[in-house]
Amino acid sequence: MAPRAGFPSDAAALALDGDWHFRLGAGLHDLTPGFEDPSHDVTGWETVSVPSCWQLDGIPDAPHRGSPAYTNQIYPFPVDPPRVPDANPTAEYRREFTLPEAWPADGGRSVLRFEGVDSCFAVWLNGSRLGDGKGSRLPTEFDATAALRPGRNVLAVRVHQWSAGSYLEDQDMWWVSGIFRSVRLLHRPADGVRDLFVHADYDHLTGEGILRVDADPAAAGTEARVTVPELGLDLRAGETVRVAVEPWTAETPRLYDATLTAGAERVPLRIGFRRVRVEDGLLKVNGRRILLRGVNRHEWHPETGRTLDRSTMLRDIELMKRHNINAVRTSHYPPDQEFLSLCDELGLWVIDECDLETHGFELVGWRDNPSADPRWRDAYLDRMSRMVERDKNHPAVIMWSLGNEAGTGDNLRAMAEWTHERDPGRPVHYEGDRDSGYVDVYSRMYADHDETDRIGRCVEEPTKDPALDAHRRALPFILCEYAHAMGNGPGGLVEYQRLFEQHPRCQGGFVWEWIDHGIARRTEEGRAFFAYGGDFGEVVHDGNFVADGLVLPDRTPSPGLVEYKKVVEPVTVSVDRAACTVGVRNGQDFADTGHLRWLWLVEDAGELVAEGELAVPPVPAGESVFAPWPPELRTAARSAGTGERWLTVRAVLGKDLPWAPAGHEVAWCQERMPASGAGSAHRPTGFAPASAGGGSITLGPGTFDPDTGRLVRLGAHDMTGPRLDLWRAPTDNDLRGWGGSVAERWRAAGLDRLEHKVLGVAPGDGGLTVRTRVSAAGTDAAMEADYHYRVPADAPGRLWLTLEVRPVADWPFPLPRLGVRAALPAAFDTVTWFGAGPGEAYPDTRAAARVGRFASTVAAWQTPYLFPQENGHRADVRWAELTGAGGGLRLLGAPHFGLTARPWTSEDLDAARHPTDLAPRGALYVNADLAQHGVGSASCGPGVLPAHRLLPGPSTLTVGFEAMEG
């Protein structure tokens, strides 16, 4: 049947989800003759749940209906369009249902609606073939009227894993198959509505909405009427009316309930009035430039794959809104329509993307790419029209996207032209054609900061077609993908956001991506983990490149999401100590700040001194105010403290909203007060001497090996180290990179296998000095590392280490880290610290770290990235206590250090492929770092910016050790 809008109705409907009989064959030569015949005996067939992806049945245990396969770009079958292999897994589904006695017999139609089937399928009802369909993430409807019977009915569906359509569905995701969205039988009344199109424009100059609802009655002569009780409207379909309304925006998602009536059918509508235009080179909604703080979202669940229920979709949106995300690109296909309805209700800008990607043709030089082949044009237009027609009534959808990474060609232009004609009220997006001749925005993915800056200044490289150059420079710019969120990262978000706010043309972007596509599995011992590419025996796969989300597969926010939330805060808070004011800049595009409360607290060395609430008037969108400090804050800020005194100001929700409860934090800032004390800085008045004898060297609480100079005991606690450490388990961003892997350079230089040569151990009256040279086999590049241990005479229980490092020869690359590593008793399983936190932070991912006193178990300190890598680093630590049974150890900064604590070594992390490969070694491995290299986004995008690179050079780290007895 022809595509139409997806809409609810009071007409009869029968859900056909549930258990279906199921048989999986190997291909065209392994089919069941006559399986569609109602009399065919399916006794002995398995059952499968519909909707579901058949490869994931049995997850998290070993699947038994084929295996999922992951590729990013390469087709998992020979590129021979439109043919696919004979070895084509094919599923046969059977479902019996009873037609309700009350099913209408009014001369209307009965329609079988499949919301999503991957990838090609044919349908029989009671032995009559209704038709077939392609376009996996798109609805398909069949007229079942003639084949439907009173009482017992038998529905049979044959689904092929591969088809010609698979060439158009080469998205970066798991290849999984089946009837993965819902199936329903719908009654379409003879005098009802075949289709409808809600045109709800908004005139921001007058405050009026312009409403017209076009309806396509199923029968000629049927009058359709629209009522909007809240607006006092009762009008004919097709009639235009102007009325004062509150507009819809992602910040203020105002919807009006309406009803379309045609004959006996009533269709509920939710109308949002808004106008989307590209004007003056800017993307505007309701006359205002908008800034997209977005994310790309694949549909994924670690147990059900692309089959999502409403609660999971709602959870996604709640998490997005709670982390200040305001926009979603539905990469790279239309989502379940319920997701769009939730976006309408809760408020997100949506770029709705067509189910189209032919990325694998790039690997063969784009030869035979369907985008440029006229024989595929109908398929392209079919996919575009089915998306637009289904989703055209969702106010959240502000832009249509032709697809993703499908090269160039006239078929894409034809899609854009059809869309502009069918729906002139929304701009059209496509990134793959850089000339941008038939789209309304200039879109790029993974442009680095310099290129983004040039585009913002309209001095980017010219188009291939000079005639289009002026056109493209007049378009607004978005990064449809940036900041690849793979593993530990992404770095550089702050610098991107500055460019978005600096250049009006740069209207934000969409982080790649929302969720890690891990699949729930268990080891033979029953330990849970998330599988990635290659874990199912795929011959061709792209490893863990599928794990590049801001949330882990179970939807636990990653440190990257916490960082993104801080970077894209919709309101900016600042403190002016001299003027004793708090500045509030409202970076929202429409809403004022009346929904927020402004809380302050003053802490001294992490201990609460005073707290209260600021009186801040509602700040209109785009404006700023300065609120004076209340007397209590002035007093607390200026009173003397024994440690660092910090003022924190927090913007929190003043009442419950549909996506978060009252008290949810939206934004914050911190400022150190001038009344701060000295903190952990210590100025000794003299030093205790070191003494040698009895096979050891003793200095204050420390006992040292006389041959190596290594600290072996502190007070009553055995320990090993500390010793110079330059290595970290490479992150995904270290391992990959368009400009080459920095981790490969680190390994080539032997940073993962350093040898330590002791050049001298010299105890004396001022303490102990140990001179070493650190280098790797096969190279003359080295580090001279001198350890100076001192015990202040006025603090005899505190051992200070000053490490001096000097590079020798050439080090033509940044270092992973620079610091010391020590092994402590494994019983020390709790960490308390004063410094930046509460989560991990690296040089270019530290915007979300605030100064305070925090506590964690060592186990919770770890970030369980799907692919084990460097994680858990806490920045700017003033002091930390590692405690457990039998006491603990206190570390002190002079003034700060970076801290990592884990029950395994960096080498263990490097060797592991899943978190379940990691096993505690019987010690706690602690790193105290002077610095770490940034993390960047090089797994797909720019590497570490110069400001965040750890370049070799003479360096000094000072850290103190103090035993804590049990």
Helix and strand topology:
Layout: E1 13-15, E2 18-25, E3 46-50, E4 69-71, E5 90-99, E6 109-114, E7 117-118, E8 120-125, E9 128-134, E10 140-143, E11 151-160, E12 173-175, E13 178-179, E14 183-188, E15 193-203, E16 208-217, E17 224-228, E18 233-236, E19 241-244, E20 256-262, E21 265-271, E22 276-279, E23 282-285, E24 288-289, E25 292-296, H1 310-322, E26 327-329, H2 337-346, E27 349-353, H3 377-391, E28 397-401, H4 410-422, E29 428-429, E30 442-445, H5 449-456, H6 469-473, E31 477-482, H7 493-502, E32 506-511, E33 519-522, E34 528-531, H8 559-567, E35 571-576, E36 581-586, E37 596-604, E38 607-614, E39 624-628, H9 631-638, E40 645-653, E41 665-672, E42 691-693, E43 696-699, E44 702-704, E45 711-714, E46 717-718, E47 720-725, H10 732-735, H11 742-748, E48 755-764, E49 767-775, E50 782-790, E51 798-808, E52 817-825, E53 828-837, E54 850-857, H12 858-861, E55 874-884, E56 887-902, H13 906-911, E57 923-932, E58 955-965
Parallel strand pairs: 25-26, 25-32, 26-27, 27-28, 28-29, 30-31, 31-32
Antiparallel strand pairs: 1-14, 2-3, 2-5, 4-12, 5-11, 6-10, 6-14, 7-13, 8-9, 8-11, 15-16, 16-19, 17-18, 17-20, 20-21, 22-23, 23-24, 33-34, 35-36, 36-39, 37-38, 37-40, 40-41, 42-43, 43-44, 44-45, 45-46, 47-52, 48-49, 49-50, 50-51, 51-58, 52-57, 53-54, 53-55, 55-56, 56-57, 56-58
